[in-house]
Design brief:
Helices cover 38% and strands 22% of the residues. It has 359 residues and is α+β, with helices and mostly antiparallel strands. Helix 1 (3-18) crosses helix 12 (333-346), helix 3 runs parallel beside helix 4 (108-116) and helix 6 crosses helix 10 (272-286).
């Protein structure tokens, strides 16, 4: 299937969504999330949903379904599963809930959906689990993307830091926890022979908090994010997004992300096609079959993969929602598409007359 055919299929589906009646009472959409009241440390507050974001997501699903539930936290979701199954025949779950300590990021709800035979319309268990292991994702994609990966060294609590530093050339690098998302724990450092004692102390202190992390070459250039939506065995890309970040750090540090102090513009540069094709190769290599996002930085006309969003945030202030909003005209589009793709994947028999009837 060509890119144009894939795009036509998605827009045809969205047109069907816009002209369909609300799903009746047999159907329910469950949104599972974390409020800040659940976090154990301030560093994870950027992973939580604000009341405004929660309401936006609920209202997005309510454009397609009569019954939409918002559940705060994995434990509350577990306690409600039996009641929800008694009340509704077809349950579709979109989850942003996660273990707020990092490990196991967003994996529990997807596997519970498998166990209880609920329809998960967000990233599945495999994708969510991979999202918590940067090293494994990079190993899996390496044969498919060649030199598009920045120089990266992974460090666990048993490794000798001094020996590792001897193998790293002088330059600017980014420290990242292996299992965290977004900007959590990300720091920029400069490595030079003269500063080795100071860097050793810094890395040792960093490892006390993040026992498994990486040192990745800092790519000084524009940051481009590529969201992909999987439908009918093909990946649809609504467009490429450039991050507009005025932070003096030169990257999306924690404070910038937490304060939403950045914006977006559509990237239509010469590398657009290459970025989209590379992203599709990454998603295919990792077996992503719902929604994902591949992040790049461009230097000397070469795109480098700096992060992989196996279960990306798609709330209003995100690159994914921005480009879907621009392409389809409203902030609800990406949520409605996820729901209706989930309907199609669940079982063709779910398409009762109300699905295809016009309003």
């Amino acid at each position: 299937m060509t890119y144009i055919e894939t795009e036509q299929n998605i827009h045809k589906l969205y047109n069907t969504i816009c002209h369909s009646k609300l799903l009746p009472s047999e159907y329910a959409v469950i949104f599972v999330y974390n409020e800040e009241s659940l976090i154990e440390d301030e560093e994870h507050s950027s992973e939580c949903i604000t009341p405004i974001e929660r309401d936006m997501i609920i209202n997005s699903f309510r454009k397609s379904a009569q019954y939409v539930y918002a559940i705060n936290g994995e434990d509350s979701f577990i306690s409600m599963i039996s009641t929800l199954k008694e009340k509704h025949q077809y349950i579709f779950v979109y989850s942003m809930a996660q273990n707020l300590n990092g490990v196991g990021r967003r994996s529990l709800v997807p596997i519970l959906c498998d166990y209880y035979k609920l329809n998960n319309i967000g990233s599945n268990f495999l994708a969510s689990t991979l999202g918590g292991d940067k090293e494994l994702m990079y190993k899996l994609i390496a044969p498919h993307v060649g030199s598009n990966i920045p120089f990266t060294v992974y460090i666990d609590k048993t490794m000798n830091l001094e020996q590792i530093l001897k193998k790293i050339r002088s330059g600017t690098y980014i420290l990242k926890p292996n299992d965290e998302s977004a900007s959590i724990g990300v720091e920029k450092i400069t490595i030079a022979n003269a500063s080795t004692p100071d860097i050793l102390k810094k890395l040792a202190k960093y490892r006390e908090k993040h026992s498994y992390f990486c040192i990745q070459e800092y790519i000084d250039g524009p940051e481009i994010e590529i969201p992909l939506l999987f439908h009918e065995h093909e990946y649809y890309c609504p467009g490429c997004v450039e991050i507009l970040n005025s932070s003096p750090s030169g990257y999306l540090d924690y404070d910038t992300v937490k304060m939403d102090d950045y914006s977006f513009t559509e990237y239509t540069g010469a590398l657009s096609t290459k970025l989209i094709n590379c992203s599709k190769n990454v998603a295919k290599a990792l077996g992503f079959e719902t929604i994902c996002r591949i992040d790049y930085r461009i230097k000397n006309n070469i795109p480098y993969i700096i992060d992989i969003g196996a279960n990306p945030t798609i709330s209003f202030h995100s690159s994914t929602n921005y480009i879907f909003r621009k392409r389809f005209g409203n902030a609800s589009a990406v949520y409605q598409l996820l729901l209706f793709i989930g309907l199609a994947n669940a079982n063709a028999k779910l398409f009762k007359p109300s699905f295809n009837e016009t309003k």
